Amino acid sequence: MLKDITLGQYFPGDTPVHRLDPRTKLLLTLLYIVTLFLVDTWSGYLLVGAALAAVMAVSRIRPKAMLRGLKPLVFIIVFTAVLNLFFTSGEDYLLRWGIIKITRTGVRRAIAMVLRVVLLVAGTFLLTYTTSPLAITDGLERLLSPLKKLHVPVYELSLMMCIALRFIPTLVEETDRIMSAQKARGADLETGSLTQRARALLPLLIPLFVSSFRRADELALAMECRCYNGGQGRTRMKQLRFSWADAAAFALGGLLLAGVVLLRRLGL
Amino acid sequence: MSLMELRGLTHVYSQGTPFEKTAIDNIDLTLRHGQTVGLIGHTGSGKSTLISHLNALLKPTAGTVLLDGEDIFASKASMRAARFRVGVVFQYPEYQLFEETVFADIAFGPKNLKLDQGEIDRRVREAAAFVGLGEDTFRQSPLELSGGQKRRAAIAGVLAMEPELLVLDEPTAGLDPAGREDLLEKLFHWREARQASVLLVTHDMAAANRCDRLIVMDHGRVAMDGAPEAVFARGDELTAIGLDLPAAAHIARLLRARGIDLPPSLYTLDQLTEAILALWRRKGGTPC
Question: Labelling B241: which of A79, B112, B139, B271 has CA 20 to 30 A away?
């Protein structure tokens, strides 16, 4: 049921990709996105696709898992393709039938856009598939820490993110549980008109809110009991350290960027 | 006559991911009319997964569940019908309360059954009486009740649907011993009065003791199935799979280990007292 959502799902593992510093992976993901948007040749897409496939192979993420993650995006992908297919102006018509015109440029652009979206999403999924949410927040906090000088509450923000992420599975579980309990009492959550279905959600939402508030209260109390007083002077159990593997990863990322730029220059 | 039959029931969570887990593995079980069955097992042995199949909340990966000989997963209608005939009270049911008043919350199930107002009224009053909630609580918000009262209100919400089979997942968890005893007493009384069947999932061996039949689960399979005395006679196996024995059976086991000749199937305090007194008399002593 609800457990099947793969929103930033983490696949635990112990591969070189999993072991990279989360900061490295965050920065490389950014670099990957920039690289992807510089691509304007087929060979460039091929290169980026090959790089993605290589990283997937190293991190042992199965193509099946990746496809499952892409499934919710099918609509957006098809929409992008259709939009580009029919609304690209040009003179090199492939097909002309009334107001429907398909141009060669349009076909090319549609394929390129689909490739771009798929590669973009797959690349970012690779980050969340190989990095636990906690490691991501940790990395983000460290990367954003220069902003502390500008009085941005980086620590508090990352703590909030951390807690929110931590409680997603708990909330999902709780929702599942309350849903089961209300269904057991004959609640019908699936049929009926829109207003009926909205009303049917009340038996679900009210207990969920009540328990969320209770949980927030308990968490605050537990934190105070352990003398929590903000980020000042806190040390960490897991120290983030760059290693030679991170350097190698950056080098490979740079190589990919250079390759794409080269192909662009050569116009291959 | 069999009320419910499980055939080759298997459930695998997150199939095809690294989190894949077989929660229940090829279970065959028959529940008869009018029985009170206890389901015991260690945390994670698959008890909760099993009971979610009984009212069609979870679809099995393989196998079927028959209610009066008919597959409950045959259609949407049959799944819904099963939900009204098999009442399930989940763990910590007090977290499901949501209505503005206790009365309205208990009436939620009967209302979904599309009963008329008079019948709803009767059922709510009857169910509340069974769990010992006074009419003075009817107009209160369920969130204002005490912990024990909340639990009872939530159970009443399922009783009001008048199920033929009542399934309770750890109904006494988190209650004090007196509250536990009291709640069990009320549930057994309800079963008697309604001539219904009960499946009681429990960790509490005192509760398990009072069932007609015990099913022991371990790692998603049925490890033992029989009368309580037969199950508790296999004390070593029970402790091996991480379960406690009732206090009396535990004491008897320790005494036997010290070479005192006690019969094997002692599991209530009365039986134990009786057996020890008998031994005492045989040795020529007089009870004090």
Answer: B271
